[in-house]
Amino acid sequence: MPLDILAIAAHRDDVEQTCGGTLLKMAQRGHRTGILDLTQGEMGTRGTAEDRRQEAEKAAEILKVSWRQALDIPDGRVENTWENRLRVARVIRELRPRVVILPYWQGRHPDHYTASILGYEACFVAGLAKLDVKRALGPRQLAFSQAASTAEMTEELLPHRPFKIIYATLYYDIRPTFVVDITEQFEARFQSLMAYQSQYSDQEAGKDLFPAEAEIRARTEAMARFYGLLGGVTYAEPFLQREVGLVEDLMLIPVKSV
Ligand SMILES: [Zn+2]
Fold it and tell me: Which residues surround ligand 1, an ion (CB under 5 A)?
């Protein structure tokens, strides 16, 4: 069954931090949502890739996403190669989302900004009518770490290009072009982040690298409040679209000016 909205991110827990409230809100409105994590988190200071898989599943349940998988692109080495573009394009063709959420294309972590460009180019490649993604990937390059069945490998993947690409900007200090009100979803979004026990519960390993749980709560709240303020609501998540906004009725434009 196709998805309406697919969020693509470098690491398990990125989506929870940047657009989890929005995904939950969209699911509550009846849209089918999904998350594609590009890496499995084997380089993390805390916990193993298997810990993170279980935590990611728990978080996905809290956010009510219909689909979540992780590719096995090496953690800390997300590269915009032809092969990686094909692997992401394959997922896009399988899931056929109308909207794709990508990370913003600038930032501190190379995996984040590379995931942005890689995701954009994969969306483009997925729409190329003459490209046979499966053949180009070859039989051994399966999309996911769990081997796909033979039937799955031979089934046809028709070209698909998402209608809309938006960028979740929370990791970078840039003015968003719109925000999504997540006042109702804020608490669940925070709980989805806390599902990553191996990362965020108070512990010895990486103590100087990771803030304490209470501090994470304060930070998460401060960011959501800040973007909420920009939109005239309590809590919000920031996004950017490259296109201009199109307005049909001036009477319905939200966000107060004076
Ligand atoms: Zn990350």
Answer: 11, 14
